[in-house]
Design brief:
binds 1,3-dihydroxyacetonephosphate, 4-stranded parallel sheet, alpha/beta, single chain, binds iron/sulfur cluster, 15 helices
Length: 304
């Protein structure tokens, strides 16, 4: 299957982009792996005709907005995101209308229609620095992740009007399970994604996007890490640092709810099928593309 995928990519000038939460076998065949910001940059700058986006729907939509003339394939079109689902465009428009004097910052984990209603897009790796640069006299709406929003609020000192969304994966991590792991592994540092609840972030030694967690785990000298995010990232951590220990955090009931069910919908077989059939592809209204492009471009310009 892997050699067929490679051959089809070569024949149709396709590139495979993958997020760190994809399964190890998908990460291993990708041309590029990254966090949401890295993936947006790569989607905007590549010579391929087809982008196979191994991630979730909002990420593939962002690639389409940045490269509207390319075909963007999402191996499983049902690979959504609870944050994007938590923020329907019509409800968001009502919220904005109730706060007409606010500057709207939206986390990239939202639909293209919500991006089209935003002034600025951010990711977990640049949210704090972007919010810090918004003029002090502006009131700010931050959507849709309230946990990331609270963390940005704390770090930047800016008051944010938060949309009450959250990630089903990061919401399931339990403080009790974390404390138990820390007790069992006293030498391990806790590293967390800012989509986690505040009580967990308060216990963490380092907080950052998936790329930043990976970078920290590689530069830091600790022999072990308790990783408070989707465990897909551990594949790259182990590759980079084979002599360190990376411990995933079980959820409250000890089931596999720490895995993102949407990210894990993509499989090698679905990648092969989408390359063979040139579907499912991302289709967006050109008017939405035009409007959503502006706040994404602003983010890319501000993050360079
Ligand atoms: P990153 O931008 O940190 O990779 O986050 C993406 C995401 O979906 C986290 O749940
Ligand atoms: Fe969305 Fe959470 Fe999955 Fe990230 S981990 S894609 S925020 S549901």
């Amino acid at each position: 299957m892997i050699s067929e995928i490679k051959a089809l990519c070569f024949k149709s000038n396709a590139i495979i982009l993958a997020h760190y939460y994809q399964s190890p076998e998908i990460q291993d065949i990708a041309d590029f792996i990254g966090d949401s910001l890295d993936l947006s940059r790569k989607a905007a700058n590549n010579d391929a005709d087809i982008i196979v986006f191994c991630g979730v729907h909002f990420m593939a939509e962002t690639a389409k907005i940045l490269s509207p003339n390319k075909t963007v394939l999402l191996p499983d079109i049902n690979a959504g995101c609870s944050l994007a689902d938590d923020c329907p465009a019509d409800e968001f428009q009502r919220f904005r209308n109730q706060n007409p004097d606010h500057y709207v910052v939206s986390y990239i984990n939202c639909s293209a229609e919500v991006k089209a209603q935003s002034d600025l897009i951010c990711t977990s790796s640049n949210a704090v620095s972007l919010v810090e640069r918004i003029p002090q006299d502006k009131k700010i709406i931050f959507a849709p992740d309230q946990n990331l929003g609270r963390w940005v609020q704390k770090k930047s000192g800016r008051e944010l009007k938060l949309w009450p969304g959250s990630c089903i994966v990061h919401e399931t991590f339990s403080e009790e399970a974390l404390l138990k792991l820390k007790y069992q592994n006293p030498n391990a540092k806790i590293i967390a994604h800012p989509e986690c609840n505040q009580n967990l972030l308060a216990l963490s030694d380092f907080i950052g996007s998936t790329s930043k967690l990976l970078d920290f785990a590689s530069k830091d000298s600790s022999p072990a890490y308790i990783v408070l995010t989707e465990p897909g990232i551990i594949h790259q951590m182990k590759k980079k640092e084979p002599n360190k220990d990376f411990i995933e955090v079980p959820d409250i009931n000890g089931c596999k709810c720490n895995e993102c069910p949407y990210m894990k919908l993509n499989t090698l077989k679905k990648i092969l099928d989408c390359l063979k059939n040139n579907t499912p592809s991302i289709k967006l209204d050109p008017k939405v593309i035009k409007k959503a492009y502006e706040p994404i471009k602003r983010m890319l310009d501000m993050s360079n």
